[in-house]
Amino acid sequence: MATRAEVAKLAGVSASTVSYALSGDRSIKEETRKRVLKAVAQLNYRPHFAAGALAGGKSKTLALLSPSGEFGIALIALEYINGASAAARDRGYHLVIWPSQESEMSEIQTFAESGMISGVILMEIKFKDDRVDYLKKAKVPFAMIGRTENPGKDSYVDRDFIAATQLGIDYLHTLGHKKIAFLTTDRAIGVDTRFSSALLEAAKKKKMTANKLQVVNEASSGRDAFIELHKKYSDVTAVVSLNDIATLGFISGANEYGVNIPKDLSLIALDTPKNHIEMSWPPLTTVNLPAYEMGRAASNILIDQIEGKENKQNQELHAGDLVIRGTTAKVRPQAKGN
Length: 338
Hints:
By secondary structure, the protein is an alpha/beta fold. Among the domains are: 1-58, Orthogonal Bundle (434 Repressor (Amino-terminal Domain)); 161-289 and 322-335, Rossmann fold. It contains 13 helices and 13 strands. Helix 2 packs across helix 3 and helix 5 packs across helix 13 (291-306).
């Protein structure tokens, strides 16, 4: 079994720096911390939990496993991360961001066994999520941003999809819209399935028809969705977007084809973070995604677990608020019979 001295030698640092990097007790340069973590992984180093506790060196570091794609961490994830980091800092903890394409089990195992962290925040939760099962078996404290299909008593913070979609659909209904379309992805995670189901149910209650436009999380896909709408659903007067990046591409497509938003077509976004709203023109009407607040809540719920504090509110749902801006309007008089 590798020793702390061997890790220090491989990383080119002192043994005490290895301890600081793993415990989070002192601030060190990010480059140095990454070298230490790389050496830990290469040597399969496993600090001893009990020894650390006896020495008063119990880790006060949380790991947030963040999804990352070809171009790094998505903007939508940054608001969750910023909120989680702020709450951790307020309570004397550090938050380590671990970008991961698929959050592989080997990475989870390294965290769980190494003693580097006190607990884990998971994002991009699947209905059936092996990461959750592993952490429960390993008795590692964790909280989810999102939730599995049947979370039971597991800790999570998630969107209130029913309330959020109802806010959006009810508003469009008051504007006279009866035929709508919605942009959604088809990933194997709970947010897509729950959002789509909630929207279809809300539209049904208002006797509105809702056509699905499937997209991926890219602006070009949003543009393609507009072209599909333009060709297949010319009677649609409003669109609900459940995808942040595709929304921006959809607006670009409308501008390209000379369709005026909101005069010719209304658009409301339900899953767009605040830092994307400023990227569009006209400014987006939204049911705001409270990502920062959800990130804060996830950290606080996890820290309560770690510190053994009773928290009966270890499961939270956040809907967001309807904010009317420049992309929605009443149905044009000639379109009222739609």
